[in-house]
Design brief:
The protein is α+β, with helices and mostly antiparallel strands. The chain has helices at residues 43-53, 77-82, 96-114, 127-137, 143-149, 160-207, 209-219, 223-237, and strands at 13-15, 20-22, 29-32, 55-57, 62-64, 69-70, 75-76, 120-124. The termini are far apart. The structure holds zinc ion (2 copies).
Length: 238
C-alpha cells in the first residue's frame, strides 16, 4: 500500500524563501502566525512546528496536515479517497449519522479552540477543504425533516415554508392579543361603572332616610339595615 506513491517526497516542502511551508499530501500552504513569526528565522524550526501540527498517516507514511487529515478514518485524505472513504464522514448508514454530526461539531470546536495558539496558519487550503464544503452542501437531510416533507399535507419547498410560518407567527398572536385587550378594557369599564353606582347608592342611603326607603321599595334591598347587620357582625367578632 505504501509503495503506491513512490514519486512524492516524504518531507514537507519549504517554499517562498522559507516564509511558508506546504503539505506534501494536499499542498496546503502554511505560514507562521503573528505570535510565532520567530519560526521564520530558522527553516528547521518552521518544519518542526509544521510537523508538530501534522498527523502521521501509516498508510502512505507521510505527515498529513490539519487540512487533509481524516480523523474519522485515521488516514490522510488522499489515502481515504484511494480507499473510497468519504472525507471525515462515517459510512455507517444507521443512527450514527447524528453521532457523526455531533462528533464533527465537537472536532470543529476543538479545532477552533486550537487555532489561535497554532504556530502556523493555512493561507492556501488544499483540495480537501473543497471536499468538506461539497459534502456539507450535499449532506443527507435529517430524518425529522424528511418525515415533515413526506407528510401528505406538505406542499412547496423548504425555501417558501419558513416565510409562510414567519407570517403566521407575526400576525396571529397580534390579532388575538388585540381582541383580548379590547375585551379586557370593556369589561373593566363596565365593572368600574357598577362599583361607582353601588358606592353612590350606599352613600346616598346612609345620608338620607328617604333615599334608603326608595331603594328598598325599588331594589328590595334595605341598605341601612344591611349596614347595621354588618356592623353588628363586626362588633360581635371583636
Ligand atoms: Zn496517507
Ligand atoms: Zn495536507
Amino acid at each position: 500500500m505504501a509503495a503506491q506513491q513512490p514519486e512524492v517526497s516524504l518531507s514537507p516542502s519549504i517554499k517562498d524563501e522559507a516564509r511558508s511551508i506546504a503539505c506534501v499530501i494536499c499542498q496546503a500552504v502554511y505560514v507562521p502566525s503573528l505570535r510565532h513569526e520567530h519560526l521564520l528565522l530558522a527553516p528547521a524550526a518552521l518544519e518542526s512546528a509544521f510537523m508538530g501540527m501534522c498527523h502521521f498517516c501509516f498508510r502512505c507514511r507521510r505527515p498529513a496536515c490539519p487540512e487533509c487529515w481524516d480523523d474519522v478514518h485515521g488516514v490522510c485524505g488522499r489515502c481515504g479517497s484511494e480507499s473510497q472513504l468519504p472525507f471525515r464522514r462515517d459510512v455507517a448508514p444507521l443512527s450514527s449519522q447524528l453521532v457523526t454530526a455531533s462528533r464533527q461539531a465537537q472536532l470543529e470546536r476543538e479545532t477552533a479552540a486550537l487555532l489561535p495558539v497554532a504556530p502556523l496558519v493555512c493561507i492556501t487550503p488544499g483540495p480537501f477543504r473543497r471536499v468538506l464544503i461539497e459534502q456539507r452542501a450535499t449532506a443527507p437531510i435529517p430524518a425529522i425533516v424528511q418525515s415533515m416533507v413526506s407528510r401528505p399535507g406538505w406542499r412547496g419547498t423548504t425555501q417558501t415554508i419558513p416565510a409562510v410560518k414567519i407570517d403566521e407567527m407575526r400576525t396571529r398572536p397580534e390579532a388575538k392579543s388585540r381582541r383580548a385587550s379590547s375585551f379586557r378594557r370593556i369589561a373593566s369599564t363596565l365593572l368600574s361603572i357598577v362599583l361607582v353606582m353601588l358606592i353612590l347608592l350606599i352613600v346616598a342611603a346612609s345620608i338620607s332616610e328617604n333615599i334608603n326607603i326608595f331603594i328598598a321599595s325599588t331594589l328590595h334591598v334595605d341598605i341601612r339595615a344591611e349596614i347595621a347587620y354588618l356592623w353588628q357582625l363586626i362588633t360581635q367578632l371583636f
